[in-house]
Input
Amino acid sequence: MELCKEKECPSFGQKKGYHCGCNRDDVTLKVTMSREKAKALAQFLKRVGFSDFEEHATSTEEVYLMLNGAYDVRVALEEAGIVVR
Output
């Protein structure tokens, strides 16, 4: 397991991977939506799985990129107080 060694990175000292903040090609999104829409999106992201992404991807690598992106959005929704069970 490789650890992030970039001192300015929010992931410093933690496992380096797709969450690592020192990735130079990161995109930051700011989205404003109603709580109702946010809850519906969180519910969708909770239910969607590998096979759903696989159906629309062009490669296995793209499936994992899509899954990781969906996970990042779920985390952001949870941090905003939108948690579905």
